[in-house]
Amino acid sequence: MSDQLPTGPAPIPTPNANAQPVFAPSFEDHLREFWLKYSRGIYTVVIVAFVSILAKGAYDWNAARVEKEIAAEYNAAASNDKLRAFASAHADHPLGGAASLRLADDAYTNGQYAEAAKLYQKASTALIEGAFGGRASLGHALSLALAGQKTEG
Fold this sequence. Notes:
By secondary structure, the chain is mainly alpha-helical. It has helices at 27-76, 80-89, 94-109, 113-126, 131-146; strands at 11-12, 22-23. Strands 1-2 form a two-stranded antiparallel ribbon.
């Protein structure tokens, strides 16, 4: 018997005694084969995920920028004429609803109940959720009643 130790994987016995011994592939061999077979797909998935993350970030940044611009425009609208223009330009935005609500409150205070009813209605459609939506709906109903019009319901 020799004093040498085996240096590689043990040969797998073959059914044919005259055939060369076959060695079992190592984990590294399996990994290299897997990488050669699927590397393009893995790169594609990583690139698509990276681009998706960048696109989501850009979309969120743009949405925040637009919201900031609308808020700055609302803050700049000090007079009733500027508030009317803002409310018309941003009728579906909550700040547009808040502008309509401020205008409606002014009209209600000045006894212009028909105008207040229109503005409260406009505000209630923009401010569907929350306390301000309910306040606008109540103001609409009160303004209609004070203007002498029948309310529904």
